Amino acid sequence: MRLEFTPEQADFAERIGGICRAVWNTGLEQRREYRRRDAWINYRQQAKELVEAKAEHSWLSEAPSHCLQQTLIDLDKACHRNGTFRVRWRSGRHWRPSFRMPDGGKIEVERLNKRWGRVKLPKFGWVRFRMSRALGGTVRSATVSRDGGRWYISFLVEDGIVQPGRHASTSSIGVDRGVAVAVAASDGRLYDRSFASKVEAERYKRFQRKLARQKKGSANRRRTLDLMRAMKRRERNRRADFNAWVVNRLTARHGIIAIEKLPVWNMTASARGTVIAPGKNVRQKAGLNRSILDKGWCQFERALTNAARYTGTTIVKVPAAYTSQTCSRCRTTDPESRESQAVYRCRACGHSENADVNAAKNILAAGLAVTACGDLGAGRSVKQEPQPSQVGIPAIRRREEAK
Ligand SMILES: [Zn+2]
């Protein structure tokens, strides 16, 4: 949600972001130095040293101390998760300033009118922000971050929802996250939206060419970069809106949603990992990867899981193998039947359909097979999956024969 800082507040936020960055980098350097000598330093020690450092360097005290502690906590977590030497520096150029205010009790939020709210942040005072929806719970923490020239705030809210009721509807749907369209559903609906128009894509390319000609560090170059970032930000916002919209529709109507469990990271790892080991097929894959990432699959899944918490919708994840090669009518698996990226035509029964809808139907069938095995219980997400080579199809057959 967008924050409306006064220029002074924006300057202040920028400084806090800078201080947090300095704390992060210093803390990381310290951890690495310890590791090189086969020693460890933990969060508690670092926090203690931070207090001592504040006595010496008054500029550190400008930031709320909780923000700095939170930075060290985040660093601690990052080092545990990724290893001290794989945690990234926060470089001034690539890092978007952000800091977390972990003290929910000191953050007050008020709604001013339909569109605006205001929040009281420690050391900042009241700040207006675009309140697009009610928070629906007590604030536990707030994260302030800058994206391009704008500041945003997000809240972590304790909503008190522990166990959602069962979804009122028992209807189920399969969803395929396709390459040709963003989302295809087994009821034949296709959800798609381009996040950048052709004109915008052209404009972006023009900027890229312009950037290549401009001198590093020049004011013009910085202006071009700002414009490019603004375009990317618009794209991201549109994608988030789109995902939210689709997810709300799906979860409102259906009690069970089956989705593909895609190894997204594996699919993109080879193209991303060019620095470490240049893969041979990076070029061929780059096109597909880009479109996968474009559609924001991870974000979609996250939005879906989150929305399902509120509606009580069950999300079933099934392995993706063969879902795009199997006929949803006669269940013949035949790689040749996929006529093109967009059309599936079964060579056995002549069934012809949008390829992504066909896949969505298979996903639904596999998902229902899992739920029919009685693994659902009280849980909302199903961990157990059918074997990849079967995709739950025999189980579905049995169900149909029993009717
Ligand atoms: Zn068929």
List keywords for this structure.
binds zinc ion; 4-stranded antiparallel beta sheet; 2 domains; single chain; globular; about 45% helix; about 400 residues; 6-stranded mixed beta sheet; alpha+beta
Give the helix/strand layout.
Elements: E1 3-4, H1 7-36, H2 43-56, H3 65-82, E2 98-101, E3 108-111, E4 116-121, E5 125-130, E6 138-147, E7 150-158, E8 172-176, E9 183-185, E10 190-191, H4 198-213, H5 219-253, E11 256-261, H6 264-272, H7 282-294, H8 297-311, E12 314-319, E13 343-345, E14 352-354, H9 355-372, E15 381-382, H10 393-402
Helix pairs in contact: 1-3, 2-3, 4-5, 5-8, 6-7
The structure holds zinc ion.
Describe this structure in words.
The protein has 403 residues and is an alpha+beta fold. It has ten helices and 15 strands. The strands form four sheets. It has a six-stranded mixed β-sheet. The protein has a four-stranded antiparallel β-sheet with strand order 1-5-4-3, with no helix packed on it. A three-stranded antiparallel β-sheet has the order 2-6-7. Strand 4 and strand 5 form a beta hairpin. Helix 1 crosses helix 3, helix 2 runs antiparallel to helix 3 and helix 6 packs across helix 7. The C terminus is likely disordered. The site of zinc ion has 8 residues, from loops.
Low-confidence stretches: 266-285, 375-403
Order of helices and strands: EHHHEEEEEEEEEHHEHHHEEEHEH
% residues in beta strands: 15-25%
Structural class by helix and strand composition:
alpha+beta
What is the helix fraction of residues, given as a range?
40-55%
Tally of discrete structural domains: 2
| Largest sheet geometry | 6 strands, mixed
Number of helices: 10
Bound molecules: zinc ion
Rg, alpha carbons: 25 Å
Nearest-integer average pLDDT? 79
Q: What's the total count of β strands? A: 15
| Amino- and carboxy-terminal Cα gap | 51 Å
Using the alpha-carbon principal axes, give the shape.
globular
The neighbouring-strand order within the major sheet is 10-9-8-11-12-15
